[in-house]
From TrEMBL:
<keyword id="KW-0067">ATP-binding</keyword>
<keyword id="KW-0173">Coenzyme A biosynthesis</keyword>
<keyword id="KW-0547">Nucleotide-binding</keyword>
<dbReference type="InterPro" id="IPR035073">
    <property type="entry name" value="At2g17340_3_helix_bundle"/>
</dbReference>
<dbReference type="Pfam" id="PF01937">
    <property type="entry name" value="ARMT1-like_dom"/>
</dbReference>
<dbReference type="InterPro" id="IPR002791">
    <property type="entry name" value="ARMT1-like_metal-bd"/>
</dbReference>
<keyword id="KW-0944">Nitration</keyword>
<comment type="subunit">
    <text>Homodimer. Interacts with PKM.</text>
</comment>
<dbReference type="GO" id="GO:0005634">
    <property type="term" value="C:nucleus"/>
</dbReference>
<comment type="similarity">
    <text>In the N-terminal section; belongs to the type II pantothenate kinase family.</text>
</comment>
<dbReference type="InterPro" id="IPR043129">
    <property type="entry name" value="ATPase_NBD"/>
</dbReference>
<dbReference type="GO" id="GO:0004594">
    <property type="term" value="F:pantothenate kinase activity"/>
</dbReference>
<dbReference type="InterPro" id="IPR036075">
    <property type="entry name" value="ARMT-1-like_metal-bd_sf"/>
</dbReference>
<dbReference type="Pfam" id="PF03630">
    <property type="entry name" value="Fumble"/>
</dbReference>
<dbReference type="GO" id="GO:0005524">
    <property type="term" value="F:ATP binding"/>
</dbReference>
<keyword id="KW-0597">Phosphoprotein</keyword>
<keyword id="KW-0963">Cytoplasm</keyword>
Length: 706
């Protein structure tokens, strides 16, 4: 290993030129890093740090309308304010780059007060002196297995599509799985230099039940001896091009075909590298790498089956640097498990990161798509534009959310709930259309962003940076639909919002919403009066038309309003022109001042405004504000109304609830209308009653995500 250190020292200057480490791309916000942790394995280094990010938010504040006639004054004022956001950064890179990266970190550390860096992994001892010398931080060792399990629990809880199943030759080879609300128990097969097999029963209860010395280090070491290739990713590339049958001895090579009585097909490997002992020829590097990869992957797959059966576990996760999202590796492990058992297919972890010693249950976290590199293919043919970086650095960013998110208590089966109606990674036609649609809409979004900040001359420059970043994300998804997990309309919208926030455009539609709310308020009393003049049946149609048009909920009829208890759930943060909870609070206060029915309902808590916990035009019912979930439970809600194309069509169209539900939307997209068998501006009005319940009367507690 001393020779390796000498090689790094001698080549450090040239290495600086061969890899690019811009702070806005890899070690982002390093100047505001507060806590550090590092995991140094035999092959890869994983660095994590906690930073605070200063970003702009759009705040609304009600004017004082009591002192004078304010008929022409706006309902509220909008101001841009600075807020501090907590963010976790995870970066993975090969150990060969550790000195270059430490130099880079040292040069960019500015505002950190920390004197300690938490360290784990076998390399923590080896590189201890180097880390302390470079960063001037004391290395404090942590238990490796504890960090590993806490990290896995953290990502399984906070990244909805963290785990995926790999299905070779399917329309979508990466099938992302919804994480069960109760993530325990599970078996973790961690494949680093060797293999550790851990049974995890709870947040703090786990046990290493087995392992093997034959792992990723074996593949790398033997591969280097066989092919003279020193880079791990290059070995994987060789394996992806090889034919293992020229090196491996198959069942048919011994028996002339299948061994039917034993259930062995002719193409099954009987002996890895079996032909190399007798064949009088040279084998290609590609074929030897492929044979080696099959041999090790098959061995690990069989071990996993045996331990899962021994401990009666059906959830098996594979993680570690050996996987790397590599199709051949995952296919071989999957094939091996399918061969030895009929249990559930193995699941692979998109991100496996150690933990930063934060309380995992105190906050909810969400991935920041603007700063995450995603799952990049190791094949140069799939995405050549990503190849230069993806083989060297992987990044994940997680933002701490203001509110804790939980399941909607009314989901029939939270474990089978899938928010999104269409998985674009599986539907090629839908994927091509929506990627084109979002790309075509980009000019309009850029113009809207600039127009929202007319007094800031640098807004145009920031908007162009947003355009470049989001377009790059869309182009990546064209090549690799699985790059950031499950690809849906919701994820495309969320990624766009994250990129807008990245360049300080927190609410491009704020002025439009303000103007429309002001106008709607002026017509409120006239609208209520006209509703009171209608018959009961006519009122119901007017209610539906008004709701679909985005108008105020009908409180015009006293007989109805007095028997209703309504919870209005709206976005916690801006997304497109959707109303936020803050805006809705101000709007409701003004309406209550004008209308005694509304005033009474607010005062008696029959009209309650609650944040949904969402900052998206869509809605994930498995990640709702904890307060909202509590209100739903306490008030025995028996009707949920979901309104809008994003919340009721793109998401939740097939959601099954334990109470009555009403999903309403106007289809404002011609392609989607055609896909659903309707016409542009058709209305979806989907009323559903659980099979075990009968329709009830007007004694409802509607929850309306606005």
């Amino acid at each position: 290993m001393a020779a390796e250190s000498e090689r790094v020292d001698r080549s450090s200057h040239s290495m600086d030129k061969s890899i690019t480490l811009p702070p806005n791309e890899i070690f982002r916000n390093l100047e505001n890093a507060k806590r550090f942790a590092i995991d140094i394995g035999g092959s890869l280094t994983k660095l994590a740090y906690y930073s605070t990010v200063q970003h702009k938010v759009a705040k609304v504040r009600s004017f004082d309308h009591t002192a004078k006639d304010t008929e022409d004054d706006p309902l509220y004022e909008i101001s841009m304010q600075e807020e501090i956001l907590a963010r976790l950064h995870f970066i993975k890179f090969e150990n060969a780059y550790i000195e270059t990266c430490l130099d880079f970190i040292k040069d960019h550390l500015v505002n950190t007060d920390t004197k300690v860096i938490k360290a784990t992994g076998g390399g923590a001892h080896k590189f201890k002196d180097l880390i302390e010398k470079k960063l001037k931080l004391r290395v404090d060792k942590e238990d490796e297995m504890t960090c590993l399990i806490k990290g896995c629990n953290f990502v399984l809880r906070n990244i909805p599509h963290e785990a995926f199943v790999y299905v070779k030759h399917a329309d979508s080879e990466f099938r992302f799985q919804n994480t069960h609300p109760d993530i325990f128990p599970y078996l973790l097969i961690n494949i680093g230099s060797g293999v550790s097999i851990i049974k995890v029963e709870s947040e703090d209860t786990f046990e290493r039940v087995g392992g093997s010395s034959i792992g990723g280090g074996t593949f790398w070491g033997l591969g280097a001896l066989l092919t003279k290739t020193k880079r791990f990713d290059e070995l994987l590339q060789l394996a992806s091009k090889g034919q293992h049958t020229s090196v491996d001895m198959l069942v048919k090579d011994i028996y002339g075909g299948s061994y039917v009585s034993l259930g062995l097909t002719g193409d099954l490997i009987a002996s890895s590298f079996g032909k190399s002992a007798t064949a009088d020829k040279e084998f290609s590097k590609e074929d030897m790498a492929k044979s080696l990869l099959h041999m090790i992957s098959n061995d690990i797959g069989q071990l996993a089956c045996l331990y899962a059966r021994l401990h009666n576990l059906t959830r098996v996760y594979f993680g570690g640097f050996f996987i790397r999202g590599h199709p051949v590796t995952m296919h071989t492990i999957t094939y091996s498990i399918n061969f030895f058992t009929k249990a559930s297919p193995p699941m692979y972890l998109l991100n496996k990161h150690f933990f930063l010693n934060l309380d995992p249950n105190q906050y909810s976290w969400g991935e920041n798509y603007a700063g995450s590199s995603g799952l990049m293919s190791t094949s140069p043919d799939l995405n050549p534009m990503q190849r230069a970086r993806s083989g060297t650095f992987d990044m994940l960013e997680m933002d701490r959310l203001e509110r804790q998110l939980v399941n909607l208590p009314l989901l029939q089966d939270p474990s089978s709930y899938i928010p999104d109606t269409v998985d674009l990674s599986e539907d090629a036609l839908a994927r091509e259309y929506w990627l084109y649609c979002f790309e075509e809409a980009l000019d309009g979004v850029v113009k809207r962003a600039v127009a929202s900040q007319p007094d800031l001359p640098e807004a145009a420059e920031r908007a162009e940076k947003f355009r470049h970043k989001y377009l790059h994300k869309l182009q990546t998804l064209r090549h690799q639909p699985f790059a950031y997990g499950s690809l849906t309309v919701r994820s495309l919208l969320d990624t766009r919002e994250h990129c807008l926030n990245e360049f300080n455009f927190p609410d491009p539609y704020s002025k439009i919403k303000q103007r429309e709310n002001d106008m709607a308020l002026k017509y409120f009393q006239k609208a209520v009066k006209s509703l009171e003049e209608l018959s009961w049946e006519q009122r119901q149609f007017a209610l539906v038309r008004g709701l679909l048009a985005g108008n105020v909920f009908d409180w015009g009829a006293k007989a109805v309003s007095e028997n209703l208890c309504v919870v209005l759930a709206s976005n916690s943060s801006p997304a497109l022109n959707d109303v936020t909870n803050n805006e809705l609070q101000i709007l409701t206060e003004r309406i209550a001042a004008m209308d005694p029915v509304i005033q009474s309902a607010v005062k008696e808590d029959r009209l309650t405004l609650v944040q949904s916990g969402s900052s998206s035009p869509c809605l994930d019912l498995s990640r709702l504000d904890k307060v909202l979930a509590g209100v739903v439970r306490e008030r025995h809600t028996d009707l949920v109304i979901i309104e809008g194309m994003g919340r009721a069509i793109h998401t939740n169209y097939y959601a099954l609830l334990s109470c009555e539900s009403l999903k309403m939307a106007v289809i404002k997209n011609s392609w989607l209308a055609d896909r659903l068998g309707g016409k542009l501006f058709s209305v979806v009005f989907k009323y559903e009653v659980p099979l075990d319940k009968k329709p009830t009367t007007l004694d409802h507690v509607p929850v309306t995500p606005s």
